Amino acid sequence: MEKILVGLKRVVDYNVRVRVKSDGSGVETDGVKMSINPFDEIALEEALRIKERGDAGEVIVVSIGTSESQQQLRTGLAMGADRAILIVSDGATDAITRARALLALVNREDPGMVLLGKQAIDDDNSQTGQMLAALWDRPQATFASKLEVNGQTARVTREVDVGLEVVDIDLPAVVTVDLRMNEPRYVKLPDIMKAKKKPLDEIPIADLGIDASPALNERLFEPPAERQKGIMVNDVAGLVAALKDKGLV
Amino acid sequence: MAKILLIAEHDGQALNPSTAKCVACAAAIAGAEIDVGVFAETAAGVAAEAATLDGVARVLTVENSANKDALAAVIAPQVVALAEGYSHIFGPSTTFGKDLMPRVAALLGVNQISDIMSVEGTHTFKRPIYAGNVVLTVEAPADQPVVATVRAASYSAVGNSNSAAIEATDCSAQLPTHSRFVELQAGSSDRPDLQTAARVVSGGRALGSAENFDIIFQLADKMGAGVGASRAAVDAGYVPNEMQVGQTGKIIAPDLYVAIGISGAIQHLTGIKDAGTIVAINKDEEAPIFEVADIGLVGDLFNVVPELTKALD
Which residues of A fall within a CB distance of 8 Å from B250? Predict the structure, then answer.
């Protein structure tokens, strides 16, 4: 295939313990480390491997958000993507809006595959890939742990609740990747320098003909109810006694 | 009034237990009239089971040989055809529902709400985000159908003393052929299903090998428990992926959860926070799992676990 499009979402880093803002309007992001959504990083790694095997000509990374998302796109370019596109949206966007924006880009770029993470670790939605596939009227292979490209089709192994499901899909298609698909490469310093020279285009979301105002009203962000700290026992006998106390054995 | 279409999950033979939990969620919506949609090659058995669920008004069956493998791209246009006139379309937040429901939502041109954990109004719901570190209250527009997945672990299954009407329906949707099922590699196990077991024993990276994981299975068998694992144990290849518990694995709510050699990363804890009683066995007394455990025991799992298995004789 000629092109693979990879979505990279800017999210609060995996290792940060998020805090809710005191007024409940969102989570604290001031001074918080931001990164590429880890699943998206795996998607990019897979796209790069497909290209390195000679099954794709170009890897394009795309993000939707404020100009700050340039950082994550630059990281993607340093990993090895050929060029980047930022769909600029200053406000928050719904998943359906993001899918519509990606579809507009798909229509411009005509990729053979769109690779995305299976979910973003901020909203935990797991929606954008499926929605894009629906709007595009193309196959979706979600939660993928293995991907083989065979000309005009792909064989995908999916991690599902009962085990592993294998599907064949015609290309073009959307594939969303799970954790065990690969281990993303580390970025080396010279690659970061090189990435600065790679093209990064910005397109205002309105220029794609999309109304980006959210339909979902995110009314309140709260910390979850905490579990009470329990008791410690010294040995197996104590554990069995405690379980008996609760009527569990 | 809320007219709710609930998409049944099944394997062609039996109804998945998640469906009875979704009914409980749907019933929490004021004025709910709940229909269950069964998309199958042969629907009779599954439909009969769904008809027993308390609170269900009708079971609608859509039979088509293309539905045998429950591919989202094939089922979604049929759901859309059946969804005409419904205010809410719900599915379980399992890999089946998470694959299907966003595709349904997009075909309807609306958003989807993932992982409903509580119903706050006909169009307002609470759901976990950031691996369960934050609870979001989200309101969907009143003038659009609400498409959502239900976090089954947040609900108890409804009873099964109902006898709802079963109606076969025709579905004229155009079905794609671009996606083809090849095979399912499913681990066969006589143990209780992880997602519905009343007791679950899980092992972590500290087990050290697939062979060592045997002591987890032995304890689980003694307790009549399902078996789970941390992401680290799955990544290390000790056990297959379907045993992973946590943010990106299974979200479970057993009466008793025994975490063995699991440090308790936040991504794991989000999968078990609704468990009745959490027991932690870990040699590191600083392990975060002890912060949420109801009963904690600091010790070497290779001594403690066999001893516990023996003590339960």
Answer: 161
Query: Tell me, what's the pLDDT at B247?
Result: 86
Same domain? For B208 and B162 the reply is no
Q: What is the pLDDT of residue B141?
A: 97
Enclosing domain of residue B291:
199-311
- Asked whether the beta carbons of residue B279 and residue A18 sit closer than 8 angstroms, the reply is no
pLDDT, residue A227, reads 83
Nearest Cα to Cα of residue A68 among A86, A44, A94, A41 = A86
Predicted local distance difference test score (pLDDT) of residue B289: 96
Q: Is B105 on the interface with A (CB under 8 A)?
A: yes
pLDDT of the residue at A218? 95
CATH of the domain at A93: 3.40.50.620
Q: State how far the Cα of B254 lies from the Cα of B233, in Å rounded to an integer.
A: 20
Identify the pLDDT of residue B171. 83
Report CB contact under 8 Å: A163, B134: no
Do B9 and B120 lie in one domain? The reply is yes
Using a CB-CB cut-off of 8 Å, the residues of chain A touching B294 are 227-228, 230-231
Contacts of B184 in chain A (CB under 8 A): 160, 162-166
Q: Strand A140-150 to strand A153-160: parallel, antiparallel, or no bridges (unpaired)?
A: antiparallel
Query: Which pLDDT score, from 0 to 100, does residue A107 have?
Result: 97
Clarify whether residues B88 and B231 are in a common domain.
no
Interface residue B133 vs chain A (CB under 8 A): yes
Residue B17 located in a structural domain: yes
Annotate A156-185 with DSSP letters as a single string: EEEEETTEEEEEEEESSEEEEE-GGG--PP
Rounded to whole angstroms, what are the CA distances from B37 to A4, B172, B269? 37, 15, 33
Which residues of chain A, if any, have pLDDT below 70? Answer: none
The confidence score (pLDDT) of residue B251 equals 92
In this complex, the residue of A163, A168, A231 whose CB is nearest that of residue B187 is A163
pTM attached to this predicted model: 0.94
- From A162's Cα to the closest Cα of chain B, the distance in A is 6
Chain A residues in contact with B187 by the CB 8 A cut-off are 162-163
Interface contacts A/B by beta carbons within 8 Å: 249
User: Which residues of chain B are under the pLDDT cut of 50?
Assistant: none
pLDDT tens figures, B163-210: 999 999 988 788 999 999 999 998 777 888 898 899 999 999 999 999
Interface confidence, given as ipTM, is 0.95
Asked whether residue B258 falls in the same domain as residue B137, the answer is no
Question: B76-115 burial, b for 16+ CB within 10 Å, e for fewer?
Answer: bbbbbbbbeebbbbbbbbbbbbbbbbbbbbbbbebbbbbb
Report the number of distinct structural domains present in chain B: 2
Question: Is B173 part of any domain?
Answer: no
Total count of domains within chain A: 1
CATH code at position B85: 3.40.50.620
What is the C-alpha to C-alpha distance for residues B173 and B9, in angstroms, rounded to an integer?
20
Looking up residue B253, the CATH number of its domain turns out to be: 3.40.50.1220
**Closest B-chain CA to A128:** B102
Q: Is residue B186 part of a domain?
A: no
Q: What is the model's pLDDT at position B193?
A: 87
Chain B: nearest CA to A200, how far in angstroms? 29
